[in-house]
């Protein structure tokens, strides 16, 4: 570490799980693995921490941040869920399916991008889920990159500017699978699902679960 500092090279701030939780509880975003890619996240109900995520990524605040749940009970903390969607959630959660719900009033406006809605999934990655459980609320889970750059599956691929903006990188197995991002859908008033982003869960799989999928025009 000393030689890295002497040469002017910053050492990535790797942390263990306990320290990652402490950082999140103190309002600091952390980089962590998910089932798809590495993510940059913070406590969902901490507006200041959410703002730090936007700044670190150079992400427009009109674009809502997706959320990861630690368990099923955390869903009610942040979202109003239509009963008709429960079979869909039980079929694909935990897993890479994000669903947009109306946000509860306690959810900070900055998190929803002013839309009043949140995109949520129950992650199948044990570390991501454990983080949310440990901090006691859902966590934001935006891809760990500068906006516009590719998502990454290894800490070695992280952008140096992003690394410099965070206090913790949690690199624990399993390694993100990469490939497609989480699929993003939203329930329409007629009960059909609008596909907002194609991803790891296919439209055919959703249809097999009994839901009609309409692609966004």
Automatic annotation (TrEMBL):
GO cellular component: cytoplasm
Single GO MF annotation: double-stranded RNA binding
Cell division keyword on record: no
Main location: cytoplasm
Keywords for the protein's UniProt record, in alphabetical order: ATP-binding, Cytoplasm, Nucleotide-binding, Nucleotidyltransferase, Transferase, tRNA processing
Enzyme class: transferase
Origin superkingdom: Bacteria
EC number(s) from the headed UniProt entry: 2.7.7.87
GO BP terms, alphabetized: regulation of translational fidelity; tRNA processing
Protein family: Belongs to the SUA5 family.
Name the UniProt record assigns to this protein: L-threonylcarbamoyladenylate synthase
Protein species of origin: Bilophila wadsworthia (strain 3_1_6)
